[in-house]
Amino acid sequence: VSNAPTNGYFLSAQSGNTGGLTWAEAGGDPTGESSVTTLPTNAGTITFGSIPDGIKWLRLLVYDFNMAGSNSRFQVRLGDSGEIHSADNDYQSYSTYVTGSESSRAAVDGFDIQYYRSENSSNRNFLIFNLYKQAGTNIWISNHTLFVRNGSLLVMGAGVCTVLDSRLTQLVFKTTGNNFSAGNANIQWGY
């Protein structure tokens, strides 16, 4: 090692230095996140734009959210070059519930997160939706977990989107059938 260690530094390979290793300052925070956004009441869609170039993963967190009505279906859609992809066959998506009932939605218009029971309109729920970019492609692979607090229902699923023609620039979280009545959301990402 060519120099003395310093707190917060990492060991970096440096072929020109004695011993081939050098203690160096980290190159900055590899992750970022958006500010927390309040879900719009009397609306069923929230869009996150300005997603940084070069990310390898993205996480959507939606928490303490309620719906204005019952039996909603949740969905995530991706956008590139100003276009939100929402045509049939743009996504392959699958969800299952821990109770054993299954819901398969192949060749759909978004990543489906498929369950919202009628008695849950006054409860606080939590969604974690993860996206991972396949190396060297514009293919995004997802997994998600939705926890519905009333009744402790757990919905899990996964999917793939292969239609992006350029980098990921937008993410849309939406519901069909009802509007949000409360909640917060943000996105996190890494390189």
Describe this structure in words.
The chain is mostly beta strands. Helices cover 0% and strands 53% of the residues. It has no helices and 16 strands. The chain has strands at 10-13, 21-24, 31-33, 37-38, 45-48, 57-67, 73-80, 83-84, 91-97, 102-108, 111-113, 125-133, 140-148, 153-161, 168-176, 180-190. The strands form three sheets. Strands 3, 4, 6, 9, 10, 12, 13, 14 and 16 form a nine-stranded antiparallel beta sheet that branches. It is elongated and about 65 Å long.
Question: Which helices and strands occur, and which strands form pairs?
Answer:
Layout: E1 10-13, E2 21-24, E3 31-33, E4 37-38, E5 45-48, E6 57-67, E7 73-80, E8 83-84, E9 91-97, E10 102-108, E11 111-113, E12 125-133, E13 140-148, E14 153-161, E15 168-176, E16 180-190
Antiparallel strand pairs: 1-2, 3-16, 4-16, 5-15, 6-12, 6-16, 7-8, 7-11, 7-15, 9-10, 9-14, 12-13, 13-14
Label the overall shape: elongated
Strand content: over 45%
As a whole number of angstroms, the C-alpha radius of gyration is 20 Å
Give a count of the beta strands, DSSP E runs of length 2 or more.
16
Unreliable stretches covering 5 or more consecutive residues: none
Could you estimate the helical fraction of the residues in percent? under 10%
Distance between the first and last residues' Cα: 28 Å
Derived from helix and strand composition plus strand pairing, the structural class reads mainly beta
One letter per element, helices H and strands E, the order comes to EEEEEEEEEEEEEEEE
Q: Characterize the biggest β-sheet.
A: 9 strands, antiparallel
Mean pLDDT: 80
Number of helices: 0
